[in-house]
Each structure stands twice: as C-alpha cells, then as structure tokens.
Amino acid sequence: MGEAITIRQAEGKWVVRSGGAILGETSAALELLEDGQDPVIYFPRGDVAMAFLDRTDKVTTCPHKGEASHYSIVNKSSTSENVAWSYEDPVEQASAIRDHLAFHQRDGVLVEKI
C-alpha cells in the first residue's frame, strides 16, 4: 500500500492526436506520477473534442484515484476502443484530475508535447 501519486502542472503545450488529427490541445495539462508507472498526461475536458468520444461500459478501479470511466474514439474511418479514461469522482488525493481525460497511446492515438 506504499504507492503514492503526485499530480502537477505539465510544462508546455500538449496535444492528443487520433489518426493524425488533433483531438485535443492544451497548455493546462496535468501530469500524474504514480510509483512504478510511466507518467500520464491528463487533458482538461474543455480542451478535448468530446464529440469524438463515446463512453463505454468499461469501468476500472484504482485505490489511489478511484473509479474510472472509459471512452472510445470514434471517427468516420475507425473506432479506437477504450483508449481514454476519466476519474469523474476521484478520491481526495487525486481530486485535481476531476474533469480531465487521459489517453492510451495505441490504435493510432498519440499524446505529445509540442
């Protein structure tokens, strides 16, 4: 149970791309660091084209962040299943990531600092 998380402002401007198109762009990204895991960038929902995301039935639970809802990216040429997630009611220590989304970098999805 010694795992800890740190959430801080991510420096610079970040984009998330799907199929080469920019799905989100922000200078207000958060970086979540968790013991034993790669850093994860969280985008404010207001900076993501939510019209391309469909909520799925998948829900996962993390004792350090809470319950995560998952989303697929849907565009006219493809669907990337469960590549985004959001802690809509996170535990107190992760409250900063409320109203943010993170993305798996797979199925043509890329998160990068520009």
UniProtKB/TrEMBL annotation:
Residues 15-105 form the DUF427 domain. InterPro entries: DUF427, DUF427_sf. This is Uncharacterized conserved protein, DUF427 family. The lineage of its organism: Bacteria, Pseudomonadati, Pseudomonadota, Alphaproteobacteria, Rhodobacterales.
